[in-house]
Amino acid sequence: MDVINTIGRRKSSIARVYMSTGKGKITINKRPIEEYFASPDSRYAVNLPLAVCDLEGKYDIQVNVDGGGTTGQADAIKLAIARALVELDAENKPALRAKGLMTRDSRSVERKKPGQPKARKKRQFSKR
Predict the structure, then answer these.
(1) Nearest Cα to 17, choosing from 80, 102, 109, 95?
(2) For every one of its 128 residues, what pLDDT tens digit does the chain have, with 9 covering 90 and above?
(3) Closest Cα partner for 61 from 12, 4, 13, 9?
(4) pTM value?
(5) Which CATH number fits domain 4-98: 3.60.21.10, 2.60.40.3880, 3.30.230.10, 2.60.120.560?
């Protein structure tokens, strides 16, 4: 099997995933997943597509991720891995779609408006 190359995005994070057959080793920015993500929630999110398809421990995954925070990076990696599994075998797609792993989460930070302290927050109204 060749190396499967896919991309995933979330907020301002971009993850490039390179998946090949192996023993289940996940490397993110040249560091093991346990070292890169301290939070077990982030590690769970990254492993979720593999768990849904019962493919844990069968593929080595190398990830280059850039931008955003830890949650956005974890979700970007999750989408990229799900796309790689579909590219590997199209029969994985219905199971991944049922769990909501094939859809890019397009929510991002709303821009700040002029004359306001934040995107939606207004200045306090003073009647007198």
Answers:
(1) 80
(2) 689 999 999 999 999 999 999 998 999 999 999 999 999 999 999 999 999 999 999 999 999 999 999 999 999 999 999 999 999 999 999 999 999 999 999 999 999 999 999 999 999 999 98
(3) 4
(4) 0.90
(5) 3.30.230.10
